[in-house]
Amino acid sequence: MSEQSKTSAPGNDSSDGHLKEIIERDAEPAVYGDVAAAATAFAELKLQEGVHKKQLEFAKKKIDELEPQLLALFEKSGTANIKLQNGMTIYVRRQIWGGVADGVTKDDLIEKLKGVRDFSRRLPKGFDVENLVAWAKAMIGGEEEITIIARVGKEADTRFLIKEGFNAQTLAAWVRELEQDDEGEVIIPDELKGFLKATERISAAARKS
Q1: What's this model's pTM, rounded to 2 decimal places?
Q2: Is the dihedral of CA 17, 22, 23, 27 positive or negative?
């Protein structure tokens, strides 16, 4: 079995050019005159969706398998990028990420982040889903969902439905702005030591040149 056949995705019978042609052709939504025609088109699209999901899952699986080998070969060759004939550049990406330090919880870190002036304003708030569902079930009927949601957090008896947290991307962006020492290690602010950790993740990435 050739290397190409080993990595061929299931159902992959169209090139990028063909896919682009289909997208351009179907840019405007179709209008159907009867339910049978619309339902048939819907069914075909659902089948296509299933095929594309399988292709995506297959591609992700193969990427996960290949990435460690590719990174090892980059290190062995002493290079950090390579430009391919198809116009793409494959390179080693190094990113700093922030996370919860060992021995503490996410809630512990959130409490500490509240005291950091230039980050506290970035802390998002979302629904505590379990509490929201339980509260909604206990409501007297007759209210629309949008009315219920509008009341959440504004009334004293609904504040328990709000759950604080932080977005991983937002935290990472903030950590990358922190100062680094001579060895490139992130200097964690004193008030966050023991609660926040910074780690470097190395991965392979691709971009079109």
Answers
A1: 0.59
A2: positive
Q: What are the sequence ranges of the domains in the chain?
A: 3-79, 95-208
CA-CA distances (angstroms) from residue 148 to 89, 134, 139, 183?
Answer: 50, 13, 9, 52
Cα dihedral 175→179→181→185 (10° resolution): 10
**Half-sphere exposure at residue 101, Cβ-oriented, CA atoms within 13 angstroms:** 14
Return phi, psi of residue 34, to 5°.
-145, 160
Q: Is residue 206 within 8 Å of 90, Cβ to Cβ?
A: yes
- What 3-state DSSP class applies to 93? strand
Residues 2 and 6: their CA atoms lie apart, in Å, by 6
**pLDDT for 91-122, tens place per residue?**
999 999 999 999 999 888 888 888 776 675 55
The token pair that represents 37 in the structure block? 């025609």
